[in-house]
């Protein structure tokens, strides 16, 4: 029997909610979609959908790129399905990029309504155009680094939309994830001429050194977690701009976004208990110490009696896309 091969489609979406975003980032976006072998065949069947969220400094379409000594995401998923390790699934790679390198997948006055874009525009677009099983029990999320943060955050906030998630080396436990960059923010701002100059010059700064990436990540977090429509750039800095000291009031607002804290909310716990699969992992040698947050989350979920899978592996933070070989099959199986 003939079975159509997998293919990649790229849909163009003109977003209503991103049209007036404060950074002037594009509101016409590409949504990259992996369609599994057999998607176009008869009889018609429905497929689970996995939304694969990119890390900071990357975005959905770039997940398709060639990587040295590695395979593309399409080749990776094709091999998993062909081997029988993974049931066929639709995998969606949305573009939630901003000038700051990411949107962190939340709404903010400093970047725009990216949560509304994902939930209110992209999900319905996919369900309209493809053979999905259009309900939360057949729809999941996965991501690594900031994408892992996005996966767990959106699953906690929208359990009516998503029924499973995988968080690979996600941004967790702000004391280790965010404070190191915050402690260097004052000197990095000085290197680049202050906040106004840095935001203006982000695309043209050369070379993009470690200090650049340190600062752009911290500015991105500031916009996402310190949102303030009344502030000059739509967000408050987490430091005193004169001394560089931590602003405790703004920091308290950041902590509310930390999944380690968020799971203490009753609604978040209910969302976790409703998941068909929770998968967490981290490299034992993560350069950003994100394994610490993963361990804390794992222990807290155990204490709460919430079913989940947790793994550590002997690697660092970068170039760990191969770990999707572990999570994607489990997600696709749970969402059948």
Please describe what this structure looks like.
Helix 1 packs across helix 13 (324-334). The chain has helices at 73-82, 114-129, 146-157, 174-177, 179-183, 185-191, 195-201, 210-225, 248-255, 259-262, 266-274, 290-304, 324-334, and strands spanning 7-14, 28-35, 49-53, 90-93, 107-108, 112-113, 139-144, 164-168, 277-283, 309-313. It contains 13 helices and 10 strands. It has an 8-stranded mixed sheet with strand order 1-2-4-3-7-8-9-10, sandwiched between helices. It is globular and about 65 Å long.
Provide a short characterization of the protein structure.
The chain has 13 helices and ten strands. It has helices spanning 73-82, 114-129, 146-157, 174-177, 179-183, 185-191, 195-201, 210-225, 248-255, 259-262, 266-274, 290-304, 324-334, and strands spanning 7-14, 28-35, 49-53, 90-93, 107-108, 112-113, 139-144, 164-168, 277-283, 309-313. The strands form two sheets. It has an eight-stranded mixed β-sheet, with helices on both faces.
Q: H/E order of the elements? A: EEEHEEEHEHEHHHHHHHHEHEH
| Intertermini distance | 23 Å
General form? globular
Binned strand content: 15-25%
Biggest sheet overview: 8 strands, mixed
Please state the structural category: alpha/beta
Strand order, sheet with most strands: 1-2-4-3-7-8-9-10
What would you report as the Rg, rounded to the nearest angstrom? 20 Å
Low-confidence stretches: none
Count of helix runs: 13
Mean pLDDT: 97
- What's the total count of β strands? 10
């Amino acid at each position: 029997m003939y079975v159509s091969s997998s293919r990649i489609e790229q849909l163009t979406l003109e977003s209503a909610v991103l049209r007036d975003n404060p950074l002037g980032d594009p509101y016409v976006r590409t949504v990259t979609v992996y369609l599994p072998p057999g998607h176009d065949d008869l009889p018609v069947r429905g497929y689970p959908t996995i939304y694969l969220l990119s890390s900071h400094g990357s975005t959905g379409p770039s997940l398709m790129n060639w990587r040295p000594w590695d395979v593309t995401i399409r080749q990776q998923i094709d091999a998993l399905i062909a081997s029988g390790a993974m049931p066929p699934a639709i995998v969606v790679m949305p573009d939630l990029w901003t000038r700051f390198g990411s949107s962190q997948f939340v709404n903010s006055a400093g970047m725009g309504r990216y949560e509304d874009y994902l939930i209110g525009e992209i999900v319905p677009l996919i369900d309209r155009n493809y053979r999905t099983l259009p309900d939360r029990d057949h729809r999941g999320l996965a991501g690594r680094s900031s994408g892992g943060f996005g996966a767990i955050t959106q699953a906690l906030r929208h359990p009516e939309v998503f029924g499973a998630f995988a968080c690979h080396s996600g941004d967790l436990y702000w004391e280790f994830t965010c404070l190191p960059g915050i402690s260097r923010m004052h000197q990095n701002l000085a290197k680049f001429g202050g906040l106004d100059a840095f935001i203006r010059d982000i695309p043209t700064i050369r070379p993009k050194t470690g200090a650049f990436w340190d600062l752009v990540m911290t500015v991105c977090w500031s916009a996402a977690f310190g949102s303030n429509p009344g502030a000059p750039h739509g967000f408050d800095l987490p430091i005193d701009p004169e001394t560089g000291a931590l602003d405790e009031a703004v920091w308290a607002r950041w902590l509310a976004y930390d999944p380690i804290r968020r799971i203490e909310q009753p609604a978040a716990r209910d969302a976790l208990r409703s998941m068909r699969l929770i998968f967490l992992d981290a490299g034992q040698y993560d350069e950003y110490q994100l394994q610490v947050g993963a361990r804390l989350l794992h222990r807290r979920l155990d204490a709460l009696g919430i079913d989940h899978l947790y793994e550590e592996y002997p690697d660092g933070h970068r170039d760990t896309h191969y770990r999707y070989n572990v999570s994607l099959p489990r997600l696709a199986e749970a969402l059948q």
